[in-house]
Amino acid sequence: MASLLFAVGGAKVAGPIGALVGSLVGSRIDAALFGPGTQSQEGPRLDDLTVQASTYGQPVPRLYGTNRVTGNVIWSSGLKETATTETQGGKGMGAPKTETTRYTYHVDCAIALGQGPILALRRIWADSKLFREADGLQKQAADLRLYPGSQDQEPDPVLQAALGPDNTPAFRGLAYVVFEGLDLTDFGNRIPNFSFEVVAGDTQTVATVIEDLLGEVGLPYLDAARTDRLDLPGYVLARPTTPRSALDPLRAAWFFDMAEIEGVLEIFPADGPPVARVPRGHLAAHPYGSDRPQTYEIRRTADLELPRQVTVQHLDPERDYQVNTQRSRRSTLNSTADITLDLPVAIPADTAKTTAERMLAVAWQRRDSVTLHLPLGYLHVTEPGMKLVVDLEPGQRRTVRVIRKEVRLPGSIRVECEADGAGAPVRPARAGSAPVPQQAVLLPGPTVVHLLDLPLLRDADDAPGFYVAANGAAPGWRGASLLRSLDGGMNYQPFATTPTGAVIGTTDEALAPGPADYWDRRAEVTVSLLDPEHSLASVTEADVLTGANAAVIGDELVQFATADLVAPGQYRLSGFLRGRKGTEAAIAGHQPGEPFVLLTGGGIQRVTMAVAELGIERAYKAASVGTLVSDATPLAFTWTGRSGRPLAPVHVQARRDGDDLIWSWIRRTRLDAPWLDGVDAPLGEGAEAYEVDILDDQGAVVRTLRVTRPTATYTGADQLADFGALRDTMTLRVHQLSARFGRGLPAEGRI
């Protein structure tokens, strides 16, 4: 007995399609195709390629065409930890400090893709998000090396360093990738589920798979279906299976049959021409002396047993190789005998739709089963899959397809057939659109950073340190790591992070000078923001007085009431309070292109420093997350301890008392503490102390007076000693003192 080998592989079959499944018993071809014994083997499925594994002994996928694969993690260095400690101090001198340590992780790992050699690696996804473009544009600067699976590839140097040169395989014949320094910040500190778009052949066909599989088992075959003309966009064999199970999905999609004919496996198209004609007179053959059978037997499958709908699930290249579903349906039928084909082949949606349409049409056209009894002379043309033209009745000729034959010696053949189905429509079908969101690799780009040696902005920041504002212009910017070099730029160590971006930009023109003691309603300046997604907003003057819209322009701290949008990311600012927090000396001398930093917009980091760093120029870098430190531009910066230095006193005055000059002033405080007693502001320092420099006409210091109250007496005797005469005109500078940072900003007085 011989039977048709292949039906609809991977399908949940009902109705007449199920009748196509047969078995070939007792031949070498049967053993080669189905495997020895009665072991159950599953063919490829859609879920074979969805989860990245790390399994010892995992099968190596066999790749054809272009497809998306996940692979198997074959080596990992384990997580490598980097600790960054930031210190924050409390209010007041000597207040307790809080240290916060943040940890980041990276890893080196190797991931097997499949059997090599492969031609190219295109896109990469990490946790379903695009990580690398087809042209090599990559989300982060981790080093990626592809080993295509050639027979002469060498071991990877990272693996050699970890395992030793003598213990590192070259994995020849295996295509794999190595990630070096993969930053895991975006992936929950774990290796993400990677998937890779792999090109294993630009011109591969169904014949390639047939030749590989049948060649391995030494099976002779004849390709009458010309499967070398059937392009194979993408196919992956990711699990152990038999040749039959592996070829089933291809047979279903491209409609070819396979049958053993005289010891050779023949492959022929399902819609091929008939091989013989059977006249009516040759029907009902039977051995001499036996009962004559019916001329032919026909059984028609009822409508309710036929499929109402065929569903084809496939991998869609237009959907980044995600699963897509195409259906064909006869809407007027109440049958529930539906067919679902799990087709793990990367084909366009239109092709899958055409397959569903054709499968449904074929199922209905093959609804008639025909049983014939023929003479032995038809033995060579009744192999399963062959087609016959049979004269059933005078003037009634039908084309049937052989399903099974049984030789009945001494002189007849019982042949089971079905209606041909060759008339099924084969015109291309159009699938409905099923778009997926377009993904693009958003590069982090460089970080623009401002190291701000400013007055104290918040009482909680009253510890040695400075402020940092950073952001990036690229849409993929996700924060930055701040690094400092203590050896002149040779090596950099991380000391802080900026997880969120500050609102920063530059001025388009110079901010004109204005008053420091009341509203400046005349000056205006245009600011262009670095990130066009950021914005500035107008507030009331009452809001300004309570701290809103504070910013740094150049070295001056200002507040503004009005922000008018003049272009995307560009604002015209006006309604200023100037010289805030003791920065009145910076009101004059503004230039175009000065930095603008919104201090009340978030993203401002406070970095603590050791007092020993005071006045030392260091090299700093801000490396965007996902980039190399070496790619960041170094920035020279000297910390002066500005936030810990007292503000310049105000209202410096002088009066004569005989020959003596008595100077007085009003001090200011660095702190934001309220004016509780209505008399004096909080001191903000450990003790009240001042130094008063007496200047000569050339600006040189001739004497320094040290006092502990906001008044100093320059005696007549000291004037004679310093100048040789009493002075009618004089210039001095007053500095309030800090126990930790020394002199504060100066206030100048003249008489």
Automatic annotation (TrEMBL):
Pfam families, per database record: Phage-tail_3, Rcc01698_C
InterPro entries in alphabetical order: J_dom, Rcc01698_C
Domain Tip attachment protein J: 239-404
Record-annotated Rcc01698-like C-terminal domain positions: 502-597
Protein name in the entry: Putative tail protein
Organism: Rhodothalassium salexigens DSM 2132
Organism phylogeny: Bacteria, Pseudomonadati, Pseudomonadota, Alphaproteobacteria, Rhodothalassiales
